[in-house]
Amino acid sequence: MTTKQPRLLGFYAHPDDEVLGIGGTLAQYSANGTTIEWVVATRGEAGEISDPTLATPENLGQVREQEMLCSAQTLGISHVTFLGYRDSGMEGTVDNQHPAAYINADTDEVVAKLVAIIRRVRPHVILTFEPFGGYGHPDHIAIHKHTHLALSAAADANFRPELGAPWQTPRLFYPVLRPSTFMALKERMAAHGLPLDFFDGLAKRRGKGWPDENYQAAIAVNDTSAAKWAAFNCHRTQFGAHSIFRQLPEAEIADIFSTEYFALAYPEPENGIRFNTLFEGIDL
């Protein structure tokens, strides 16, 4: 890292999106002086409730907001902005029709909010979902689309100048959970004689997922795995005893997810390029 302070901004859909594929990197960078801000489109109101003593459908959004803030503090995220939309739920569910659902939000309104944040933070790197959103969640796909629109608009001096001075973010990355990582998880679980039904559904949902070999940075996060899994444990409503990520001892899970992968979305990557860090070569 240079003596100047790098700035990283995440645009995501729900509390807990910040942990599994990127938590170790966030903890590593925050410890090295990177300023990290996070934007969450919803409070995850349509999420699971792993234990009925933790939340009710009526207060789940409030509980998950606190879980997100717990995780942010653990990972070293300096500020979290909740855009205030409602979780849209999985594709085809009744939550899709809720008038406040994020997928029903006005695109211009959302993009303006993101542009204002980009121009205020002036990040060197932005993170968001790849086009399919990992497994096709409508909110994941929506924040992907809105991020790209905002990335371009924030750099355009003619777009809403009252939102701040234009800023061209040097890089946009997609943190990606590779299919091979889940295959390693499946193999470990099989070795323990654990049920593997989860992986049948995952294969169907990930049919449009990101190719294993398409990444431009691979960051080892062994040194920050404790922070990553402590942040994971903040999200108690979502990751209860039956979660696929609690079926193995934490040390084994941490080992499987000990490298985090990032695909360069902007600018268009050169063939074969690999970065040692997300900020490598950026003029800070």
End-to-end separation in angstroms reads: 10 Å
Percent of residues in helical segments?
25-40%
Spans of at least 5 consecutive residues with low confidence: none
Percent of residues in beta strands: 5-15%
* CA gyration radius, whole angstroms: 18 Å
Total strands: the figure is 7
Global geometry: globular
The overall pLDDT average reads 95
**From N to C, what is the helix and strand string?**
EHEHEHEHHEHHEHHE
Helix segment count?
9
Structural class: alpha/beta
List the strand order in the largest sheet: 3-2-1-4-5-7-6
Biggest sheet, in brief?
Answer: 7 strands, mixed
Descriptive overview:
The protein is of the alpha/beta class. Helices cover 35% and strands 15% of the residues. Helix 2 (60-75) runs antiparallel to helix 8 (225-234). The longest helix is centred in the middle third of the chain and has 17 residues, at 138-154. The termini are close together.
